[in-house]
């Protein structure tokens, strides 16, 4: 058997657990999908045209999905992001493959996930939720099947690992933090939007870049505080997908080297981050003003 990285071995294990394919076939399909487990699973089932009868775990998950799909609860639930989906998608006859906001809130409550904790975003990422107030059948079944959790008790038992893995910074496709951070942008968008409103983006940054999720701070630099202050007092604009994704890269690099020795003005960074670097240097006393003062002293 060819040698694989630890990340690739984990992906093979997840994929074979869902599809029951042999390791060699799983590796081939994963490689063709850039080692993205979810993409490979989707490609596998599409190529088989859903001809394989549902497994016991799929049946259990579909039944659990249907339990919450038919929920009818009052609206008016305000999510941390400051928006509520008002789509009435909890009528089984109207939308058989969607759980709307009421059912989603009931499900998350039964799961023991608070709307105020970052693991909420990790769970919604695993289930490929299209918005903060909606769950789809395919995402729900595929996500929990991948984690081998067919019911509420086993799903609850999967939460501690998500909570443990979320603060581990990495740009690897298999990283819980990376996948959650990337998917969070989609979760924060309202229908028709292409950029995140600044207030929504700020709340997501706070949720993802502070404990119990990733702590974006280093010994001499309170990065998250600087970032929020810069965005709200200087930038004052919506956050594009490019800025969102490049911020994650910036976060990882700043945690590896807070001196920003990796930074270059010639780099292809968004202007938002170019300006943030100047902001940080000024706050730390090593910006242009600091350099001028140092030159005068010499």
Describe this structure in words.
The chain has 298 residues and is mainly α. The chain is 57% helix and 1% strand. It contains 14 helices and two strands, in the order ααααβααβαααααααα. A two-stranded antiparallel ribbon has the order 1-2. Helix 6 packs across helix 9 (176-188) and helix 11 packs across helix 13. The protein starts with 5 loop residues before the first helix and ends with a helix.
Short description:
The protein is mainly alpha-helical and 298 residues long. It has 14 helices and two strands.
Broad shape: globular
List SSEs in N-to-C order.
Answer: HHHHEHHEHHHHHHHH
Helix run count: 14
Characterize the main sheet. 2 strands, antiparallel
Question: What Rg do the Cα atoms give?
Answer: 22 Å
Structural class: mainly alpha
Low-confidence stretches: 71-90, 289-298
Distance between the termini: 64 Å
Output the strand order for the largest sheet. Answer: 1-2
Strand content: under 5%
């Amino acid at each position: 058997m060819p040698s694989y990285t630890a990340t690739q071995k984990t992906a093979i294990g997840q994929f074979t657990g869902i599809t029951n394919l042999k390791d060699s076939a799983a590796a081939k399909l994963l490689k063709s999908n850039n080692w993205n487990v979810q993409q490979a699973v989707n490609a596998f089932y599409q190529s088989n045209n859903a001809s394989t009868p549902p497994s016991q775990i799929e049946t259990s998950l579909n039944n659990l999905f249907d339990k919450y799909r038919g929920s009818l609860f009052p609206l008016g639930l305000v999510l941390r992001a400051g928006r509520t989906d008002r789509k009435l998608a909890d009528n089984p006859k109207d939308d058989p493959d969607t759980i709307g906001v009421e059912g989603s809130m009931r499900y998350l409550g039964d799961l023991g996930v608070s709307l105020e904790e970052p693991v909420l975003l990790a769970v919604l990422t695993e289930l490929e939720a299209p918005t903060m107030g909606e769950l789809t059948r395919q995402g729900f079944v595929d996500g929990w099947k991948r984690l081998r959790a067919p019911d509420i008790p086993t799903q609850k038992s999967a939460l501690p690992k998500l909570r443990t893995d979320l603060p581990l910074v990495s740009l690897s496709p298999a990283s819980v933090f990376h996948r959650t951070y990337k998917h969070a942008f989609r979760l924060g968008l309202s229908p028709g939007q292409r950029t995140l409103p600044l207030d929504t983006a700020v709340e997501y940054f706070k949720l993802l870049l502070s404990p119990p999720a990733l702590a974006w701070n280093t010994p001499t630099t309170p990065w998250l505080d600087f970032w929020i202050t810069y965005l709200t007092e200087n930038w004052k604009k919506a956050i594009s997908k490019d800025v969102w994704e490049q911020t994650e890269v910036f976060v990882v690099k700043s945690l590896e080297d807070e001196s920003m020795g990796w930074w270059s003005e010639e780099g292809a960074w968004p202007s938002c981050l170019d300006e943030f670097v100047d902001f940080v240097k000024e706050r730390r006393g090593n910006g242009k003003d600091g350099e001028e003062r140092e030159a005068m002293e010499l």
